[in-house]
Amino acid sequence: MQIAVMIMAAGEGKRFGGCKLLSELDASHSILSHAVEMATASQIGPVFVVTGRWHNEIAKAQRLGLLAQVPLYYCPQWTQGLGSSIAHGTQILAADFDAMMITLADQVALSSQDFKQFAISATPEHIVCARYNNRRGVPALFPASCFSQLTQCAGEHGARHLLRSHSFPVHEILLPHAAYDIDTQEALADWRHRLQR
Question: Mind listing the pLDDT tens digit for each residue in 27-77?
Fold first, then answer.
């Protein structure tokens, strides 16, 4: 299967109070550059970043060599929520791929090995998604049979309705790493403290 890895990085980060995506995660990575590096290292497919509010800042960081040279796709409808960004990216990529892997830039605990689990479990018939905190969520890998539904996503909840739908069989991967994301300055400080320990 030809899999596209789509990192969602379009939000404003209102609770964070600024551009969290380019905030320093450790001595050599921002939150976004770490996500790109882990996705790329998994080697499951080409990596793409869907941007929005902070597109210009992200593009500048890439020009300065602070972010790997992956395609950046600006979503003009980013204010309408994660769903609109997923729809935008899928519309661009669908024709060239058999499956779409969707992950969030701020899921900082994910490793390349975590991503590989999804490729191993992928089939043309099943959605593969993470399970954590007793629920289904992203990362999630959607086969081409879901693409038309992905292009119709809207709102803040992204593609969650597909993970809960009975229209497509869903294979779950127990992935506690996916539960940790960075929404606030305090969460980032806590993560840095964990790394230092």
Answer: 899 999 999 999 999 999 999 999 999 999 999 999 999 999 999 999 999
Distance of CA 37 to the CA centre of its chain: 12
Which residue in this structure is represented by tokens 């921002």?
A: 30
Residue type present at position 108: V
Backbone angles phi, psi at 73, to 5 degrees: -115, 115
- The single-letter code of the amino acid at 105 is A
Q: Distance between CA 187 and CA 17 in Å, rounded?
A: 12
How much is the CA Rg of the chain, to the nearest whole Å?
A: 16
Question: CATH says 3-196 is which class?
Answer: alpha beta
The predicted pLDDT at position 29 comes to: 93
Query: Which 8-state DSSP code applies to residue 142?
Result: E
Reported as a single tens digit per residue, the pLDDT across 66-77 is 999 999 999 999
* Residue owning tokens 């998604």: 129
Domain boundaries of the chain, sorted by first residue? 3-196
Question: 124: Cβ–Cβ under 8 A, 6 or more apart, which residues?
Answer: 1, 98, 99, 143, 144, 145
Instruction: Please tell me the chain's helix, strand, coil percentages from 3-state DSSP, rounded to the nearest 5.
Output: 40, 25, 35
